[in-house]
Amino acid sequence: MGQGEIFGLLGPNGAGKTTTIRMILDIFRPDHGKIAVFGGPMTEDKKERIGYMPEERGLYQDIPLDRCLLYLAALKGVKKSEAASRLDSWLERFDLQNHRKKKVKELSKGMQQKAQIIGTLLHRPELVIIDEPFTSLDPVNTRIVKEMIRELRDQGATIIMSTHLMHQVEEMCSRILLINMGRNVLYGDLDVIRKRFMGRDILVCVKGDLPPLEGIQKIETHNGAAKLSLREGVDPQDVLQDLMKRNAVVEKFEIAVPSLDEIFIRAVGKAEA
Amino acid sequence: MGKLKHVLAYEFRREAFTLKFLIISLVIPLMTALTILLVSIIASSENKNLPVGYVDRSGFLEGAIEQPARGGTPANPVTGRLVTFLPYESLEGARKALEDGTIQAFYVITPGYLQDKKVICYYLKHPGWNVKNQFKDFMQINHLRHLPVETARRAVSDCNLIVRWPENAFGLTREFSAAGFLNQFVPFFIAVSFMFLLFAGSGYLMKAVAEEKENRTIEILATSLSPGKLIGGKILSAVCLTLTHYFILISFTVAVVLVGGYVFDIELLKRLGLDWGVIIPMVLLILPAFVMMAGLMTTVGVMVTESQEGQQMSMLFLMPVMIPIWLSFVFIRHPDSFWVYAMSFFPLTAPSALSIRMAFTRVPIWQLSLAIGVVTLAALGSVWVAGRAFRIGMLRYGKRLSLVQILKGRRT
């Protein structure tokens, strides 16, 4: 992974995403192979440069929110005064300032989720690993978290995001790794992957009825447009020329890009086959 | 070291600054103080130190001398003061003094006393047993007043039997004195307080580990510091919490002894002392026992899903520690029986069994060394199992871990 990118770690349930993350963080040791973090094996100092929000959210339930977050920051090597000042701005940003003295267990699930994010970022990590970051968040807070992740990226942090929400990955990530049963299924730039999975489909919208066209295998309706699946050897340009010949008034002509959901299903299905 | 310090401070603060901690710290001292106070009140109400009169119609007490303290034991168990016996010329005079409240009772020594030893006691409210005992001493010593006073006093006083053991391997000896009989119980109380330390410390550790699992915080902590620092901080915190309890307990006990002994003049408390010949071997035994229990409680904390469940499961290990205390009378009466020996060398019962034996009997040095060795080995074993359990089970949120899984080393 390169510095300053948002990287998507994807895979079906039980694929090994959490295990991979735990190996990166030196919680588990791999049976074989090596893992390099910041150019070498994991050390205690390097742990201070990493922020991790696990899928199993964890905060001390019986103590006030601010004490819990300051303790977690102290374990990441942040001085108390520094942590306290950073905490103020984070609580303000997430609208938790009035709840700072409440016990964690008294907070709603969404508030706890926001608190967890603060705990992950309070020490200003260079590498952030977040597992399902948008769980339990309402649309407003989802937007805040998205903005915050982009902000972190712009500041030079690297973010590994593990999620099942493909549209979030499409929106946020520049590169992805899709794993299944502990193996690499798909890896690379999202745009390149999309192109690789681009099929022979086009989306067409014409005034009136679509005239009969040559070289079309199947026609489906897709968001008010006709999705045409082209036969082998037929070029989209040929279809456009055919439409022109038939004096069709073309309102939309677009080469269909596969969604990440489709890519995911196809890649995993192919790997399992 | 910095992160270990943070864990230590956090864990200590979380437990120590609570009402529950204060109550646990003060419950034993307050109960002790309350018991002493109640005993004092009852004894004071029963045993008054007002003078007692006598009317001597036999002439036996002419030129009477004061009664001695009994065998060095105070005449009054609370104040240690002797009752004064005042002579009265007539029955009327004594009766008037009794009604005035000048005296609490008076005796009439009948004219034929030297033949029939008959004495009559008059009172408005039944005097305490101190009056009866001291009057007996008073009469006895006056039977011997033809002897030099000191000789007579010594003859009447009970003997104070002192038993001393030869020096042990540590160059320390023990002494049992009839006059300071309470001293014999001091090592027992110390042994019980050590058990309290063991219970409290291991309980705190179990809770600290189980709550990490319950709160699902372990994965975050594992990416912040090493397991060694995490567990090290928790163990140190448990030790500090326990020592705080102990400090409060000891301070209070010392205060009670000093105030009772030197303010309220309670002779028994003045005579209390520490027996290092017992305390040092106890400490040598308790230290590895503490490590052993720490390991066991960490394992329990990892195995369970909630700290409450852990407290129940920890009783499996804490109950055997208690058995010798419950059976202390067997240890005192049959110190050489098979079961006493067996419990002395079983790791979970050895700390309390040996502590009680050392308090009341002499334990051969080889037995003590063997017990310390067994407990030390058990401590090493429990730390090994705890490390294994921690590695395997801490991420099993909401799932119990079985002993078989720990020993087989299965993670899921």
What is the element layout, followed by pairings?
The complex is a heterodimer of chains A (273) and B (412).
Chain A: E1 6-10, H1 17-24, H2 44-47, E2 50-53, H3 65-75, H4 80-93, H5 109-121, E3 127-131, H6 139-154, E4 158-162, H7 166-172, E5 175-180, E6 183-189, H8 190-196, E7 201-206, E8 216-222, E9 225-230, H9 236-245, E10 250-255, H10 260-272
Parallel strand pairs in A: 1-4, 1-5, 2-3, 3-4
Antiparallel strand pairs in A: 5-6, 7-9, 7-10, 8-9
Helix pairs in contact in A: 3-4, 3-5
Chain B: H1 2-16, H2 19-46, E1 52-56, E2 85-88, H3 91-100, E3 105-109, H4 113-116, E4 119-123, H5 129-143, H6 149-156, E5 162-164, E6 175-177, H7 186-214, H8 218-222, H9 227-263, H10 267-270, H11 276-303, H12 307-326, H13 328-333, H14 338-345, H15 350-360, H16 365-393, H17 403-408
Parallel strand pairs in B: 1-2, 1-3
Antiparallel strand pairs in B: 3-4, 5-6
Helix pairs in contact in B: 1-9, 2-9, 5-6, 7-9, 7-11, 7-12, 7-15, 11-12, 11-15, 11-16, 12-15, 14-15
